Model the fold of this input.
Amino acid sequence: MKADGMWKESTGEGVKVAVIDTGVNPDTPSLRGQVLADEVPEALAHKATEDYTGHGTTMAELIAGTGTGGGLKGLAPGAKIVPYRIATKELKGAEAEKAPKAADIIRAVADSDVKIMSMSFGNHNENEDELAAIKYAQSKGKLMIAAAGNDAEEKNLIGYPAAYPYVVGVAATDESGKAASFSEHGNYIDLAAPGLNMPVWCDSNFRSYCDEGGGTSSATALTSASAALIWSAHPDWTANQVLNSLIDTAGRDWARDDPSTYLGYGLIRPRMVLEDKNYDPGPANADPLAKENATGALDEAGDPVSASSTAPSAEPSKNPEETPDANTSATASDADASDNSTLWVALGGVAAVLVIGGGAFAVYRSRRSA
Done:
């Protein structure tokens, strides 16, 4: 994607991204001055800047890290992070009880000037309070982006919040653009981004990065950063227009009106928007996910999924960083891809994130049900 070139057009300056995760450590070299902890409402601020696994901090760095001191340089280093801490399966006892609920956080972000919610966590059951909060945030013009989940090799259950209406569900790909074997799939997958072989903070001690991290969490962070780049360059656009531009320019070799159940509308390519000074994002009030939102999440048989109670979901267990909540599941795609530049994240203060670029993606996929 040639991040250095994109940064000549936009760095994400002026855009705030809420990272709803395990907390965000604002004191890593890469995040100093990037985290707006004072913008978290007091009622929801419990230990928002104390990350109990290192996961939320990694996501924040992939979005807006500056690369200072040998840390990760994110895709949108001019953006700012507003941190929120939720309880995932790693948080126990009283601390889990004190962590704010996702629904309350989503409503609070909806009432703020934050434009994007990056949600690299998940569960396998729909929750009515979260759904109501999502609909409220959509009415307030927010762009919500969430991880599909990482249990495709086992169960491939429906992943929430990714499967809620108005939420962009993100799948993970390998270096070739192929859907990762663990990346969950279904009619709620909207976009895809790299999600393998990335440095991540090893744990909550923040002493070093570990290799071979990633998952749909990292793919979600990169998609959120891509949206921040575009929104910064076009501050008058709506969330619908920012999302439409990502969908319209996504790398794919299938029809836009027949998205893949593994890679959605394709792999993110924000450079295609940033370099086109005359790019038309479409109508401000046209929902790019209208068809999916009307249908709702479908199960493997193509039947609508009904609401039930919450339960957690997370990153591939083989990764050193486990993403929030408990994993969902199923088989990964046999997707092939060609002619793509790959994403890489480098340490040592050099330009760290180069994302998907290039041409078409030949993918073995199942069609979405209407």
Q: What stands out?
A: The radius of gyration is 18 Å. The longest strand covers residues 167-173.
